[in-house]
Amino acid sequence: MAGEIGFIHTTHAAAPGGHYAQALSYQGVLYVSGQLPVRADGSHSVDQPFEVQAAIALENLLAILDAAGRGPRDLVKVTVYVAGIEHWPAFDRIYARYLGEHRPARAVVPVPALHHGYLIEVQALARDASHS
């Protein structure tokens, strides 16, 4: 039997720039769309260093988790796209700072380019917090 899809939206993260939801919940799993480092107010950070862009993308992710009643410890899978593998060490340090001891499954995928010239995009899956 199909369950209801719950759409998640918060003004504390960048609004979708296309025909998609910030996140949706289905059968206890939260699916977070790819988060570029666009600030919650819609301003772009494409001219900022990688470290700043990574922090903004992760802050968007955490704001969406919060809006869905979840937190970083509910993350089960994170996929990160970086424009250039040279950014991997910096991302790993920043990611560890945001997630602390929690270590969800993760993939860091180097890509030749991202939309608008950004250097990072983060998407994730999270569990239902009530099952923690």
Put the structure in a nutshell.
This protein is an alpha+beta fold. It contains 2 helices and 6 strands, in the order βββαβαββ.
Order of helices and strands: EEEHEHEE
Strands in their spatial order, largest beta sheet: 1-2-3-6-4-5
Beta-strand percentage?
25-35%
Low-confidence runs (pLDDT<50, min 5 residues)? Answer: none
Cα separation of the termini: 24 Å
Q: What's the level 1 CATH class?
A: Alpha Beta
What number is the mean pLDDT? Answer: 94
Quaternary structure classification: single chain
Structural class: alpha+beta
Number of strands: 6
Fraction of residues in helices? Answer: 10-25%
General shape: globular
CATH topology: 60s Ribosomal Protein L30, Chain: A
The whole-angstrom Rg is 14 Å
CATH superfamily: RutC-like
**Number of separate helices:** 2
How many domains, in number, for the residues? Answer: 1
Give the name of the CATH architecture: 2-Layer Sandwich
> How is the main sheet built?
6 strands, mixed
Protein name: RidA family protein
Pfam families: Ribonuc_L-PSP (PF01042)
Organism: Pseudomonas rhizophila
Family: Belongs to the RutC family.
